[in-house]
Design goal:
- The complex is a heterodimer of chains A (about 350) and B (about 180).
- The N terminus of chain A is likely disordered.
- In chain A, helix 12 crosses helix 13.
- Chain A is about 45% helix and about 15% strand.
- In chain A, a hairpin with a 5-residue loop joins strand 3 and strand 4.
- Chain B has about 180 residues and is mostly helical.
- Chain B has three domains: about 45 residues; about 50 residues, no CATH class; about 35 residues.
- The longest helix of chain B has 16 residues.
- The chains are: A alpha+beta (about 350), B mainly alpha (about 180).
- At the A-B interface, helix 2, helix 5, strand 6, strand 7 and helix 8 of A face helix 5 of B.
Chain lengths: ~350, ~180
């Protein structure tokens, strides 16, 4: 099936879908460890069934109604709408990998879409588990900034759409885990230090004790590939948005500090040579491997990122690692090579492409 | 005045409206007996003892209340979700489910959030300023609510319950 088309390092820079979105810019506070912060609001409309009881024709009606209201002037964000029926499954996978939509929304057969801004800092999913899932992203640890931006957007949505709410339960959501504020603030953390020193379980347990959820790279049910974890508030009812924001900010700050301390410990004394060995082995794999699965690639890139952050790998840059992280994923890889590839073909192509992106091709 | 559309004899006392997206798409006028026969009549309110009424009034306020032998909820009239479906899926089908499955929902909310009532933004009340609660006022309201229930002054009790809920969220109880 292959049409010869090798990805060259420069081409992707001009194509928006190969530039890291807001979540991978790597330029916010604490961005060496806190990759990205996201605020998510769950909202439903009065007069329509919630997702589990929503017939397809009503889902279409709801979708059209929301789209029409989003087009009204005065929205605080410049959004453009993408009807997910108008793009193919590969393009939908790319959106999932960019965290703009969920896997569930991509795979749904109903009328559904996403409204995003050009910076990919805002993405409103329509007809997900709730009628609206408003998401705001910022690079680094910026819980207050994302919440304030989401709040402005929510104000505009409340003016345009009849939200389902009650005095007692707040915003009514399909799942009781989101009832109340409907606010989930999550921070994506890169925690190789805690994983390598076997402290991650302790960190996870501590976070859970203070009502924080710890999830993998792609949220609920996903694995922590490449030592990336998402930490978010579990409680949405009984605490207001300001309290939630402050709780997540303080708790994540402590995890970031913990990660910094274990990294230093891993680079001291007898632990140092073991740590360096692991980082250089990852580099060796990236430089020489002929076949790389996305899971192995993420593991190697995580080690590389650790090495760069600790000034152990001159000549490599975080922006290149971030691009490599994005392009190593199946959807981006196939979009970049402009080919539909079988898994084994993808693994071969990935090994070559990552060398080019990282600037270590020979 | 309209006659019952089913028996065409008695005067209709119940109107059933079909709603679609907020618009009325059809209506049916029925008399009491026909409505009951068709299963769309008003459910007869069971006789309640004052303790049960107090429980109802307190609703979410008494989180540690043990489960009672009250009858299980029927399917939600808003979306048709049954209690079994709610338990299996763990999802609600429409805003009315929050009332219909209240007795199953409350302990669930307490387990997930360690809380059963909202604090924070709502449409029309978007301030996230920290709430200042007046404990003395809250205690006073709780005492008056219990007195009203004991004295079987249910209208007053319902009003006090709403006041108490608002006060617990910091509205009307600010210094």
């Amino acid at each position: 099936m292959s049409k010869s088309n090798r990805g060259d390092g420069g081409r992707g820079d001009k194509m928006p879908e190969f530039r890291p979105g807001t979540w991978l810019q790597g330029n916010g506070p604490e961005s060496d460890i806190a990759i990205c912060t996201r605020a998510r609001l769950a909202r439903n409309l009065q007069g329509f069934h919630f997702s589990p009881c929503l017939p397809d024709d009503e889902a279409r009606e709801l979708y059209d109604f929301i789209v029409q209201r989003l087009k009204q002037s005065g929205m605080p964000e410049q959004l453009h709408l993408l009807d997910l029926d108008n793009i193919d499954d590969l393009e939908r996978t790319v959106l999932v990998e960019r965290h703009l939509i969920s896997r569930e929304l991509a795979g749904s057969k109903r009328a559904r879409g996403v409204a995003t801004d050009t910076e990919e800092a805002v993405a409103i999913m329509i007809n997900e588990e709730d009628h609206l899932r408003v998401q705001v992203f910022a690079s680094g640890l910026q819980t207050e900034a994302v919440w304030r931006r989401a709040e402005r957007l929510d104000d505009a949505l409340i003016q345009r759409l009849p939200m389902a709410w009650s005095e007692e339960f707040g915003f009514l959501t399909s799942c009781p885990t989101n009832t109340g504020t409907g606010l989930r603030l999550s921070v994506m953390l890169h925690l190789p230090g805690l994983v390598w020193s076997d402290e991650i379980e302790k960190a996870t347990n501590t976070a859970q004790k203070i009502h924080l959820a710890v999830r993998g790279l792609y949220g609920e049910g996903s694995r922590a590939l490449g030592d990336f974890y998402q930490v978010s508030n579990q409680v949405t009812l009984g605490r207001d948005e300001t309290q939630i924001q402050s709780d997540v900010f303080l708790a994540v700050g402590r995890i970031v500090q913990w990660e910094r301390e274990v990294r230093q410990a891993l680079l001291r004394g007898t632990a140092r040579s073991r740590t360096l060995d692991r980082i250089y082995r990852a580099l060796g794999t990236l430089e020489r491997a002929q076949i790389l699965s996305s899971e192995e690639a993420l593991g190697c890139l995580s080690a590389l990122r650790f090495g760069i952050e600790e000034d152990l790998l001159p000549g490599f840059t975080i922006p290149n690692v971030n691009r490599a992280l994005l392009l190593s994923q199946p959807g981006h890889l196939q979009r970049f090579t402009r080919e539909r590839l079988q898994p084994d073909e993808r693994d071969q192509r990935r090994a070559h492409l990552l060398r080019e992106v990282l600037g270590c091709s020979r | 005045m309209q006659y019952c559309t089913a028996c065409q004899k008695a005067i209709a006392s119940i109107v059933i409206m079909d709603l679609n997206g907020g618009a009325v798409t059809g209506s049916q006028h029925l008399c009491g007996p026909c409505a009951e026969q068709l299963g769309v009549g008003q459910p007869k309110a069971p006789t309640k003892f004052s303790a049960e009424i107090l429980e109802d009034l307190l609703g979410g306020l008494k989180s540690s209340r043990p489960a009672t032998s009250r009858p299980r909820a029927e399917a939600c009239p808003g979306c048709g979700m049954t209690p079994t479906e709610f338990r299996t899926k763990g999802r609600l089908g429409c805003p009315r489910c929050y009332d219909v499955f209240r007795h199953e929902l409350m302990p669930l909310l307490a387990r997930i959030h360690e809380s059963q009532s909202h604090r924070g933004r709502l449409p029309g009340r978007t301030s996230t300023a920290p709430v200042v609660t007046d404990e003395k006022n809250l205690a006073d309201l709780r005492r008056r609510l219990e007195e009203a229930v004991r004295g079987e002054r249910y209208e007053e009790a319902a009003r006090l319950r709403d006041d108490l809920r608002r006060a617990e969220r910091g509205e009307g109880a600010r210094p």
